[in-house]
Amino acid sequence: MSLVEVDSLTVEFGDLRAVDTLSFRLEEGAALGVVGESGSGKSTVASALLGLHRGTGARVTGSVRVAGTDVQEADGEALRRLRGGTAAMVFQDPLSSLDPYYAVGDQIAEVYRVHSKASRRAARARAVEVLDRVGIPDAARRARSRPHEFSGGMRQRALIAMALACEPALLVADEPTTALDVTVQAQILDLLHGLRQETGMGLILVTHDVGVAAESVDDVLVMRHGRAVERGAVADVLGAPSAAYTKELLGAVP
Ligand code: ADP
Ligand code: MG
Prior knowledge:
Family: Belongs to the ABC transporter superfamily.
Shape: globular
Order of helices and strands: EEEHEEHEHHHHHEHEHEEHH
Structural class: alpha/beta
Domain ABC transporter: 4-250
Bound molecules: adenosine-5'-diphosphate, magnesium ion
Number of strands: 10
Protein name: Dipeptide ABC transporter ATP-binding protein
Strand content: 25-35%
């Protein structure tokens, strides 16, 4: 069994087919970059991995399995287990995922407490531990800061800490560095790399920036109009792209 098994996934929003019969696998602990231009369906795939289309108007066919759980079919309890431990997601804009009125540490503690049933005290300790792990200096004190008191890079670190708190087997990161400047971008990619090595979690890194994927993943899946154009080892696909579209993405052809 692979960590992620996507078979003939199709996601439609009304008349628009955002993802079209997409299939791919991710083995435990591996890292896959999902690349493609804006609108190619990357975020729709990312959301499907956590069952985020359920209960929305989106029409989903095909199947998505994460660690053996059928994400579309799972009952409430299995879905909670999936979202609260098996898989976690980090988005482009940390401010949209963090409540501006509450201390960052409290928000991480709350997420952890809901999913792990830990005591408040243990959850607060876990929040400080993961904030420290992602490189927030003086984590015990900074845990009491609210999101706007953090820089953009620190907020993204905090969001990664939140995702890490429940020790996910899979981290889905949707454009996690897009809003950051180049130096901070590199630091966040380094952090993700280190965490992968340390925890053995699988990573799906969604990005429109092939350069970001090239530095951070083993394999890439190139998407266009909701379909997979090609997939393979980073060096093969980006070094010698077989699809004209991939060459275009790389800027290899005018
Ligand atoms: P990407 O992440 O590659 O930029 P998306 O997955 O966000 O692409 O979007 C793919 C297509 O689906 C786009 O045309 C987008 O406008 C459309 N889309 C995405 N989410 C929704 C939604 N909730 N409702 C309607 N259309 C959507
Ligand atoms: Mg997107």
